[in-house]
Design a protein that fits this description.
By secondary structure, the chain is α/β, with parallel strands linked by helices. It is about 35% helix and about 25% strand.
Length: about 300
C-alpha cells in the first residue's frame, strides 16, 4: 500500500482540530467539499473509517484517534522542515497560530497585532481564544499566552505585555448610591454581583488582599456569563447599574477613567504577575513564531495604562 498524499493527512488533522468540515475549511482557506473528498480518499486508501460524522459534529473513531496521536508530531516535523526554506526569503512568511485566553486577546495582543502584521506582511496570524488548559501541539498551535500558574510544563516562556496586573472591583455610581459602598470584601455577600464561569464549570471566588490578609468571597447575583465570550455583556450590565463586577483592571480602565464605573474596595485589589508567551523547546522554530518572539522582545513589556493606586 502506497503512502497517502501529505495534503490528505493535513486535511484530516484540520477537520479533527476544528471538529467539523466547515470549520476546518475556514481554518485552512479551502472548501468543505475538498476536505470531505480528501478524507474519503484517505479512508479508502487505509481501509478504515477515521471519522464519526453526524449532522451536528465530527469526531475521530478509535483508529482516527490513534492516527492523530502519531500524525501531530510527524507532520509538525514536516512543517518545520518546509519552513527552513523561509530562511532564504527576504521576509518571514507563513501562518502563526496562537492560543490565548480572552483577557490576553484584549489586553495583551490588541496593541501588538497591527504593528506586528504591518512589520511582517507575509505572515498570517490565527488567534484561537479559549481559557482552559491546552496541549499546544495537539491543538495545532505554535505558541500560547498564559499566566504562571497555567503554563504547561517543559515549555519556554517569554514575558509579554504588562508585568503587573490587578483584579479590579467596580460598579456604576448609581448602583452604589442606591445600595451602598462595600467597605470590606465580605460586604459583597449582601450585594448584586456579576459573575463569570469557565467552560469547565469552575466559578472562581473573588480574591482580595490587604496588609498580608487574604480574603476570598463567593458572592451571588443576577447575571452569570461564560468567561471567554460573555465578559463584555457583564461589563455592559455593570455600566447599566445592575451590580458589581470583578475583572482585570485594564479591561475596566476606560470606564474607570470616564467615571462610568467607580472603584470598589481598591485598597484590597490583588496584583499578580503578567502573562507569558510560551512555546515548545524546538531546535528549529517556525519563522513566523521566531519573528513574533523577536518582535515582542524588541518592544519590551509595559506597565498597564491609566491610573494606579487611587485612594
Amino acid at each position: 500500500m502506497s503512502s497517502p498524499p501529505l495534503q490528505d493527512l493535513f486535511a484530516f488533522l484540520a477537520v479533527v482540530r476544528a471538529k467539523g468540515f466547515r470549520e476546518g475549511a475556514r481554518a485552512t482557506g479551502t472548501s468543505a467539499s475538498s476536505l470531505s473528498e480528501a478524507i474519503r480518499r484517505l479512508e479508502s486508501r487505509l481501509g478504515v473509517r477515521l471519522l464519526h460524522r453526524t449532522t451536528r459534529s465530527v469526531a475521530p473513531t478509535e483508529a482516527g484517534a490513534r492516527l492523530v496521536e502519531r500524525l501531530v508530531p510527524a507532520l509538525g516535523e514536516v512543517e518545520a522542515a518546509l519552513d527552513v526554506v523561509n530562511n532564504f526569503r527576504d521576509r518571514p512568511a507563513g501562518t502563526l497560530r496562537l492560543n490565548v485566553p480572552a483577557s490576553a486577546s484584549r489586553l495583551v495582543l490588541a496593541p501588538l497585532v497591527t504593528p506586528f502584521l504591518r512589520a511582517y506582511p507575509d505572515i498570517k496570524l490565527e488567534v484561537i481564544v479559549e481559557d482552559g488548559f491546552v496541549d499546544l501541539l495537539a491543538a495545532g498551535c505554535d505558541a500560547g499566552i498564559r499566566y504562571d500558574e497555567r503554563l504547561e510544563q517543559d515549555m519556554i516562556a517569554v514575558p509579554i505585555g504588562p508585568r503587573r496586573q490587578r483584579f479590579a472591583t467596580a460598579a456604576a455610581p448609581a448602583y452604589l448610591e442606591a445600595r451602598g459602598r462595600p467597605r470590606h470584601p465580605r460586604d459583597l455577600l449582601r450585594h448584586a454581583c456579576l459573575r463569570g464561569r469557565f467552560a469547565s464549570g469552575a466559578m472562581p471566588a473573588w480574591e482580595y488582599e490587604r496588609k498580608g490578609q487574604v480574603v476570598r468571597v463567593d458572592p451571588s447575583g443576577p447575571l452569570l456569563v461564560n468567561v471567554s465570550g460573555g465578559v463584555d455583556l457583564a461589563v455592559d450590565a455593570a455600566l447599566d447599574g445592575l451590580g458589581i463586577i470583578y475583572l482585570f483592571e485594564g479591561w475596566l480602565q476606560p470606564h474607570l477613567d470616564s467615571g462610568a464605573l467607580e472603584p470598589v474596595l481598591e485598597p484590597w485589589w490583588q496584583s499578580f504577575t503578567g502573562p507569558f508567551l510560551y512555546y515548545p523547546g524546538r531546535r528549529h522554530l517556525p519563522s513566523p513564531l521566531r519573528a513574533f518572539i523577536d518582535f515582542i522582545k524588541d518592544r519590551g513589556t509595559w506597565e498597564p495604562p491609566g491610573k494606579t493606586g487611587r485612594k
